[in-house]
Amino acid sequence: MSTLRVDESAHSGWVPLVVIDEFVGAGRYRLLARIGAGGMGVVWQAWDELLQRRVAIKCARVNDPRSMGRLKEEAAIAARFDSPHVVRVHDLVVEGDTWWLVMEYVDSHSLGQLIARSEQRPTPAQVASVGWQIAEALRVVHAHRVVHGDVTPENILVTADGTGKLVDFGISRALGADGTRTRDGSVWGKPRYLAPEVARGRGAGRASDVFSLGASLYAALEGHTPYGDSDDPHVLLRRARSGNVDRPTASGEPARLIAELLHTRPGHRPEPAEVSRRLRALSSPDRAVVPWTLPGRGVEEPIGSEAATRCGPAFAFPAEFEAARASAATRPDRRPTTTGTGTPTRVADTAPDTASDSRPPRRLVLPRPDLRRPGRLWPIGVAATIVATAGIMAWSPVLDGRTAPTAADSRAILVGDERTADPCALLEPASLARFGKSTLDATLGGFRRCDLLVHDTEGRRTADAELSFTEGGQELGPQSRARRIGDITVIEGTPVGKECPRILRLPDGYVVKVTLKNLGADPIDVCAMADAVTDHAIDVLSRGRIPRRSSPARDASLIRLDACSLLDASALARVPAIDAQHPNPGFGDWKCRWHSTVDKAAIIVRFYQREPLPPDIGAPRQSAGRQAFLTPSELDHDECTIRVVHRTYPNGPAHPIVELVLIEVWAAQSQDRLCAIADELGTAVAAKLPHP
Fold it and tell me: How many C-beta neighbours within 10 Å does residue 1 have?
C-alpha cells in the first residue's frame, strides 16, 4: 500500500519529516521526503534499496525540456569530478517523462543557512576552513575545463565536522562556451555574488568563480554581500556592473585574502590553488578542518505553488496527518503510536538510529490522500542535504527568488547583455516620415549609440535623433516633466537651444537617452520629433527584451575589447594617486574611468567611431606604430586628450569609418606635463590593441 510516513530516525530531537512511499529507478530508489524546490526542479531525500544508503535525488520539472536538458548536462559535468569537496554523482535515471539525478547525500547545512543565523556569525577560522575546501573544489573543477558559474553560500554545504562541499552544477559550462548567456542576452546566476564582468554580460570564467567564492566568504564574515545588504536585485546588479565592491571591515589575513578575490579585474585575482593553500594555512594550526555547531532544524515553510515546482509525487495532506505529526513532535520518546483518528500505526522495534546513512527511516503509516483531489503540496520538516536549487534564474538583471521568472519579470528585463543589445532596434525611420526622409546610422559615436538622420529633398541633413544606452544618474534639470508608461518612466526635458532631450528609465536600472538636434538653419519642432522617436522606442520596449545586434562584430573591432584592460597599474601610475585597483567601467566595457584618491585627477579611456579625423583635430604622431592625434584642451588647462586610430573600414558607398581610442587625462599639472602623460598612455594603449 502506498503511504505517507513520518521519519523520526535521521536525528533524534528533530521535528519528524514527511516521507512518501514512492519508488523510482525500477524500484531501486525510495523517495523519503521532498527537501528543496526551485525554478530548476525538486530535490528529494531517498533510500537506495540496492546499496542500503541514503541518497539525494534531483528531478527536472515535468514537461519542461529545458529543465531536463540542464539536468542531463549537470549530470555529465558533475560526474567528471572525484574530490572530497564536490558532491558526487551516482546515477542518472530516466523514467517516463521525468529525469532523476542521483547524488551523494550530505548531512549538512548550507553556508547560506549558517550565515543567516543572527545569534552566531562564523568565525574567521571557520570561514578560512570552508574557503580552502571550496577553493580546492574549484581547482579540480577548473582542471577539467569547467566553470561552475554559481558559487554562492547556498551551493556550499558544511557538515558538523567542518567538511565543505560544492554542489549544484546546473548552470556550469565548459571553459570558452557562452553558456552563461542566453540567446536573448540574459545571463544565469544570482546578483549578490556575481563577478562584475559577468554582471556586464561577459562569459563566466575561472576568475569569475574565484570572485563568487570571495563574495560568499565575505558574506560569511560580514553578514551581507560585498554589494551591500539591499534586497533590490536592480540595486545589486547596478553595483556589480559598476564594480562597486565593499572591502571587508574585518581585520586579519582572511579578510585581506578575500579582498584579493574580490578584485574588480579578473586578471588580478589569485588562482584557486593559491587560495586553497593560503586559506588552509589560516584555518587552524594543524591545517585540519574546523568543526561547526550546526543549528537544529525547524519546520519548513511551504515552497511555492505546485505548478511551479511539481516533480514527482504531489499530495494534499489530510487533517489527521497534522494531528499525528503534532503527537510525534511532543512525545518524549519521539515514537508516535496512533494517528489522531485512532488509526493503528506501524513502528519499528529498534531504537532510533542516529547514523542517518545506515538504515531507512522508521515510519508512521497513514492512508495515502486521494490524488484526484486538488491540493497544495505542503512539505513538513526539513533535512540537511543538497537543496541548492532555488534562487537561480535568467536575468538581465537577475531577479532573486524561489521560482522561475514570471512573464512580468521577463518584461522587466530589457537590456540584457550590454554588448549585444542593439540601440538601432529602438529607432524607426517611419516615425519621422512627416519631417523628411530618414536613415539609420550606427557609426556616429560610441557602440552604445545609434542615430536617425533626417534629410531634406536635396539630401542635406536637417535633424539628428541620437539614441544611446547608459546607466542611471541622468538628469534633465528642474523644468523637466516625468510620466509613467507601464514600467518605464519618461522624463521630458525642455528644449535647450536647437536640441530637445528625452530620457527613458527602464525597470532594470538602465537609461535610454534620446536627443533631437536641429542641424539646419530653419526652425523645426525638435520636441515633437523627440516625442515621435520616444513613442516608437517605448513601443519596442513594451514587447520585451531589446533585440540583439543582427550580425556579430568583426574580431578586430574595438567592440570586442574591454577599455579597463588597456592600462595597467604601472601605466596609470603616471598620474599620482590614481586608484588603479578600482576602475569604473562604462556601458559594455567600452569606457573606463580611474579616479584619484586625493583630488579630482582622472584618466578616461573610451572607444568610439566616426568619419575620418580632420587634420586639424590635433598634433599628429605615432603611438606604437599607429596614427594618433594629441589635443590639449582650449577650455580647461587641466586636461589633455590623445586619439589613437585603431582601424579604418568601408561603410558602403559612403565615406569610410574610423574606430578610435580616446584617452583623456585630468590633473592639476601644467598642460605640457599632462600632454606628455597622455602621449605615454596613448603608446601604452596602442601596444595592447589587436592587429586591425
Answer: 6
Q: Which residues contact 267 (CB under 8 A, 6 or more apart)?
A: 207, 565
Mean model confidence pLDDT for the chain: 77
* Helix (H) or strand (E) run with residue 131 in it: helix 124-143
Residue with grid cell 593553500, as numbered in its chain: 277
Q: Cα–Cα distance between 68 and 75 in angstroms, integer?
A: 11
Domain membership flag for residue 638? yes
Query: Does residue 58 have a known ligand-binding role?
Result: yes
**Residue with the three cell numbers 534564474:** 393
CATH number where 521 lies: 3.40.1000
Overall pTM surpassing 0.85 (yes/no): no
CATH number at residue 305: 3.30.200.20
Enzyme catalytic residues: 150
Integer Cα distance of 645 and 624 in angstroms: 11
Residue 437: partners with Cβ closer than 8 Å, 6 or more residues away: 429, 454, 455
| Same domain (yes/no): 212, 242 | yes
Domain count, the chain: 4
- φ, ψ for residue 504, nearest 5 deg: -115, 115
pLDDT digits (tens, 9 = 90+) for 232-274: 887 888 888 888 899 898 878 889 999 999 998 888 899 999 9
Q: Residues of the chain whose pLDDT is less than 70?
A: 1-21, 37-40, 61-64, 118-119, 170-189, 284-288, 295-412, 472-475, 654
Q: What digits encode the pLDDT tens for the residues 37-91?
A: 665 678 888 999 999 999 998 887 666 677 777 777 777 788 888 899 999 988 8
